[in-house]
Design a protein that fits this description.
The chain has 91 residues and is mainly α. It has five helices and no strands.
């Protein structure tokens, strides 16, 4: 466990609001990072993907940088443009 993990664990124990906010932000970060990695593995730039999605590079950037909530339909289009399928699991 590193210093950040210890800090967030301790802070989460003393503040349930912090824990909820941190977890939600972290999940959004993970989604954006996963999308970026898949795009790069597909050999596409943000501009390339934006053209496939009929949108602007800035929209792709916002998605990858988790600057906004992303709809499932947007995720599905993103995956399709990369030749992938979207799979949603509720645990």
């Amino acid at each position: 466990m590193d210093d950040l993990d210890r800090y967030t664990e301790k802070r989460g124990e003393s503040s349930p609001d912090f824990a909820r906010t941190f977890e939600r932000g972290y999940e959004q970060f993970r989604i954006g990072e996963l999308l970026r990695q898949v795009r790069i593995q597909a050999g596409l730039t943000q501009n390339d993907l934006a053209e496939k999605l009929h949108t602007r590079k800035s929209a792709v950037s916002r998605i990858e940088n988790h600057s906004e909530d992303i709809r499932l339909s947007t995720l599905a289009h993103y995956a399709e443009a990369l030749g992938k399928k979207l799979k949603v699991v509720i645990q």
